[in-house]
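Box 3.1 A note on notation
Throughout this textbook, protein chains are presented in two layers. The first layer is the amino acid sequence; the second is a token string describing backbone geometry. Keep the layers aligned when reading.
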Amino acid sequence: MDEADRALCEALRGTPDVWRHLDGPMVERFLGAASRHRVRPLLAWRLHGTGELPAWPAPIRRALLDAARGEAALEVIRRFELRRLLDAFAAAGVPVLVLKGAALAYATYPEPWLRPREDTDLLVRSDDALSARRVLADAGYHPTPMQSGTLVSHQQLYVRIDGTGRRYACDLHWKIANPVAFADLLSPDDLWREAAAVSLDGCTVRIPSRVDALLLACWHRASHHQDSDDLLWLYDLHLLGDDLPDADAARMTAMASRTGTQAICARGLSMAAERFGSRVPPALLAPPDAADDRAALTAIYLDRHARKVDRLAADLRALPGWRSRLRLLREHLFPPAEYMFATSGRSARALLPALYVRRIARGALAWFRRPAE
């Protein structure tokens, strides 16, 4: 962490007088870090709760309060839209589970506007995916161009633009993650069996249990974001993992061991503890068995220097046979024609072979390039 990130973490964990070290260029650096990590509303709330907010430099105080007010106003709109969608799914008889940011906002954070989010993540069973698409279409949502296939992707982003030009996004999932190494670690049925419920304006919202939410949060920052140090995601882990009851800690430990994700869970929780002082059961921070082959398949996602082709290799090893491995390669190399046309701006089918050749040539460099430091 750099100096601005360290100061931000100290302020979020309640350390007094952090503001005394913020002067000159550090003010802008601190505000930039708070914006980059999407924690301005949360920090405003924390400082208000400790009574320290009036003492902070005026530029920081104004920026934090503006962010908090803006997020609170957005929450009114988001809440209404989520309720509208859940009513539509209920009317269609399609069971749906609210995931990630929206679920945490209503179940884990003191106020839902403290957890910024760009979209609403919904999970359905694969057998209900077609019906769920119809529900979203009837609600005014349209799918965005995304790479698709039975192995390469298990979600679809839908967007609605209302009459005022406001954008609403809904990410529909039928598996918990796209990478093969993670996609089936927990099925929708697994999540439904342990699901919790929260009330949203009289509507019952089904969300993952605390343990499942913690597992998903640990896995997400690795599987889709390669060990990201995003403080909002780490604060999610802090709230979910802090003072975890013994029974939940035992189940979490068992699930991490069964899925070969001990290293991923330990990494995320240790980063949260380092930054925010989370009290995490020691068993959750223990290293995995070095002989566990399953752990090797997911641990590559913790390597920030790993190439895309290295992660692909792990996904290929996670598949059961050569037929499915060849299918995954084919889906990566040759997405559906509709996707190629939508992303290239071309529509002539005679150009499709050339579009695939260009995609493969351009993609080869990205797949074998190591991420920048």
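The first helix runs from residue 3 to 12. Strands lie at 97-99, 120-123, 142-143, 155-161, 167-173, 196-200, 203-207.
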